[in-house]
Amino acid sequence: MAALDLFGRRWNLRVIWELRHGPVGFRTLQQRCDNMSSSVLRQRLTELLDARLVAQQPDTAYALTDLGRGAYQALRPLVRWSDGWASALREDDEAGPLRPPA
């Protein structure tokens, strides 16, 4: 339940997603997260630092820890599912509005 609570907070999953390829500085991370407010980003980073999913490097960039990379790997099936979901929604949109059976 603690993990669901942590991941359910707005922006936490996005921060993990944006750090998946390597360290990112605060301003770049803020831009990648649709320019969320700096106070919210600081709060989310503090939560992820406390949970040991993210670490701040000596150059002040943020990076996933081994636990954070594990969390990202665990979430990858959800990414695959969401890709299929988006594809199904696009197909439905292209097919037109749903009509009730006659």
Blueprint of the fold:
Layout: H1 2-8, H2 12-18, H3 26-32, H4 38-50, E1 54-56, E2 62-64, H5 66-95
Which characteristics define this entry?
mainly alpha; elongated; 5 helices; 102 residues; two-stranded antiparallel ribbon; Arc Repressor Mutant, subunit A; 6% strand
Can you tell me about this structure?
Helices cover 63% and strands 6% of the residues. By secondary structure, the protein is mostly helical. The mean pLDDT is 92. The protein has five helices and two strands, in the order ααααββα. A two-stranded antiparallel ribbon has the order 1-2. It starts with a helix and ends in a 7-residue tail after the last helix. It has one domain (2-95): Winged helix-like DNA-binding domain superfamily/Winged helix DNA-binding domain (Arc Repressor Mutant, subunit A, Orthogonal Bundle).
> For the record, what CATH class applies?
Mainly Alpha
Show unreliable segments. none
Instruction: Name the overall outline.
Output: elongated
- Going by CATH, the architecture would be Orthogonal Bundle
Tell me the distance between the termini.
Answer: 45 Å
Number of domains: 1
Describe the structure in brief.
With 102 residues, this protein is mostly helical. The protein has helices at 2-8, 12-18, 26-32, 38-50, 66-95, and strands at residues 54-56, 62-64.
